[in-house]
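Per-record layout

source: Sphingobium tyrosinilyticum
name: Fumarylacetoacetate hydrolase family protein
length: 274
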Amino acid sequence: MRYVSFRRPDGTPSFGRLDDEAIVELTGAPSLKAALAAGNLAGLTDGASFNRNDIVLLPVIPDPAKILCVGLNYAEHVKETGREQKEHPAIFVRYADSLVADGQPMVKPSVTTRFDYEGELAVIIGKPAHKVARADAMAYIAGYACFNDGSARDWQRHNIQFTPGKTFPGTGGFGPTLVTPDEAGDLASQRVQTRLNGELVQDQPVSDMIWDIPTVIEYISAFTPLAPGDVIATGTPGGVGDKRTPPLYMKAGDKVEISIGVIGTLTNRIIDEQ
């Protein structure tokens, strides 16, 4: 199944199931996150049906309590950054207001000249997870989505912490749908691909992750409880713009697309901060 959060034609926020090109609103819970928390997503009642062109998508989970991101999780990316491979994952956070939906513009901050793309696979948590064993971790996943961890590289490197460059408002893309594990199938061979203005700039299989998804969930849930609707961005492959010669940064007017196998394609245009 594929689920979306969206605004109805009257502007009211809602959520529903994607059926081909139609979106079937689901009733019985106020939001997709609430439905996950109640554990009754599959049992909700169908409501109104909307044409995709009549609604505006929201980030898959518009209001996650926690967004945790894995840095340096592909060997090619570690190599291009010149960093040392560490014993444990590098974890940083984003805030909910830093995310925009599929089809909405990502905002290049006025204070950066180095706005970079990072295509990633996002994991959405489906039930409370605390101190989860690696062997059990996949049972806590509600689904997957595409993610663009848009990064202000200069701000990212002001000091040793990544966060200032990673969570400017409107800088990250998240969507278009939550794809349930049964529909996603085997992720290992599916490729994380990023295209900037049609040029393929990142392309690696999910299996190239240094720390796989169960390991990441085990590690993160050991230090913070995860709740339904929380998001984990699992890291970006090699090929980021900041490490190219010459560097390749996103600018106003650009179109960036993140595609991951059956998970789908996240598309955003870039605009300047107003």
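summary: The mean pLDDT is 96. The chain has five helices and 19 strands.
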